[in-house]
Amino acid sequence: MLNIVILLSGTGSNLAAIVKAIESQQLDARIVGVISDKALAGGLEIARSKNIPSYFIDPKASSTREQFDSIVLEHIKKLKPDVVVLAGFMRILSNDFVSALKGKLLNIHPSLLPKYKGLHTHQRVIENQDREHGCTVHFVNEELDGGAIIAQMAFERSGNENEQQLKEKVHQLEHQLYPMVLQWFAKALVKLEQDTLIVSEELRSNVEPAIRIPALNNG
Ligand code: GRF
């Protein structure tokens, strides 16, 4: 059983998707805590409704980013997670935080990384008239949206979608991809070694066609 801590700042639709995957037994995991830097985050509400221990940690009570991150880290350690899942946690993380959780800190990003690190990914896809768009689950390292990519899901654009439509489409894919990748962790099919993704033979020979694992060159 994989113990998961989820960090979020917003609506928490990815949290909801992970909860759903656990409830429908597609994911052998337990969410041992949800932590937010926003008191009114919808994700905290979802956590409470599911009786998941949830915590609001107020950034205003810390004088520096490093101090806030170390408080969050202490909370995380008490919850003893196997993986820490960033699901719309809208903060730049300090290096100490990232290195303390190396190899078990994951993020989902609304673009096909390495394209479009940072914000406004959908807008940039439109501006550049990209033919495809999607989402990425990756390990977190000290570089913004720069850690080893685990897996991606993509779709072909019709070409005239607006930002909101792209956002919704990407969200749909995120809700499939994150639980799936977490199940790989539950079954120990992937891990990080020296900043490189290691994929087990079992996963290598069973990747679903819709899933890209750049380390396998299957996209
Ligand atoms: C997602 O689009 C994710 O890619 C980004 O933040 C958003 C979180 O959405 N990192 P939600 O709060 O899970 O609905």
Q: Can you characterise this structure?
A:
This protein is of the alpha/beta class and 219 residues long. The chain has helices spanning 13-23, 42-49, 65-79, 95-100, 121-127, 163-186, 201-204; strands spanning 2-8, 29-36, 54-56, 83-86, 105-109, 132-139, 149-156, 190-193, 196-199. The strands form 2 sheets. The protein has a 7-stranded mixed beta sheet with strand order 3-2-1-4-5-6-7, sandwiched between helices. The protein has a two-stranded antiparallel ribbon with strand order 8-9. Helix 1 (13-23) packs across helix 6. The chain starts with a strand and ends in a 15-residue tail after the last helix. The structure holds 5-O-phosphono-beta-D-ribofuranosylamine (GRF). The site of 5-O-phosphono-beta-D-ribofuranosylamine has 15 residues, from helix 1, strand 5 and helix 6.
Task: Tag the structure with descriptive keywords.
219 residues, 34% helix, binds 5-O-phosphono-beta-D-ribofuranosylamine, single chain, alpha/beta, 7 helices
Topology, pairings included?
Elements: E1 2-8, H1 13-23, E2 29-36, H2 42-49, E3 54-56, H3 65-79, E4 83-86, H4 95-100, E5 105-109, H5 121-127, E6 132-139, E7 149-156, H6 163-186, E8 190-193, E9 196-199, H7 201-204
Parallel strand pairs: 1-2, 1-4, 2-3, 4-5
Antiparallel strand pairs: 5-6, 6-7, 8-9
This protein binds 5-O-phosphono-beta-D-ribofuranosylamine.
5-O-phosphono-beta-D-ribofuranosylamine binds next to helix 1, strand 5 and helix 6.
